[in-house]
Amino acid sequence: SHVWNVEGEQSYSSTREIQRSVHQQMSEKIRRACAVARAHGYRYIWVDSCCIDKTSSAELSEAINSMFAWYRNASVCYAFLADVRSNQNPRAHRSDFRQTRWFTRGWTLQELVAPEAIVFLSQDWQVIGTKSSLASLISLITTIPTSVLLCTVPLRDFSVARRMSWASNRRTTRVEDEAYSLLGIFDINMSTLYGEGRRAFTRLQEKILKRIPDQTLLAWG
């Protein structure tokens, strides 16, 4: 899990090109992520930016609808926090960890909630802590209950409005992703149509109302 760089990330197509040419290099972020996973005994790592072919609308839609399950079933999720220094106590009052952009982005909500195990990594790839060890602090930062963070209580036990509130202060680059990033939070399967704008959120609400008899949804527009 990571916040994408504004200047762009290594893509699926560029990763495919690297497989064909030994003269090219993967980005430092990908190389360091692979090194961390390898050091922990893993043979494979999945990174959204370079493992999804975003030029294929069908593959992108399938990935978006499957992503929550992928994170939930992962052995571990590494959350790389590029704006957090390693020489700090994350619990300190004005620590980088408390203020990281990772807690403000739309897509990272499910990346926080879905995995059973998360290891947070600093900008120089040092371990800051785990979701389990930092659960109370993360709950304070995000307002998400520790029972949700630790996967001890199912999401369906929380009202629609409560779950929506966890995303209320998060932002996405594409307006459609405000809806698409919540599909897993509500266990909804929905086609993705980039270009539909805010209609995506209306469609999400309609899907939720059909699946979950909870009128608290109407508080969110």
TrEMBL record:
InterPro entries under this entry? Answer: DUF8212, HET
What is the protein name for this chain?
HET-domain-containing protein
**A Pfam family it matches:** HET
Residue span(s) of domain DUF8212: 199-221
Domain of life of the organism encoding this protein:
Eukaryota
All residue ranges annotated as the Heterokaryon incompatibility domain in the record: 1-88
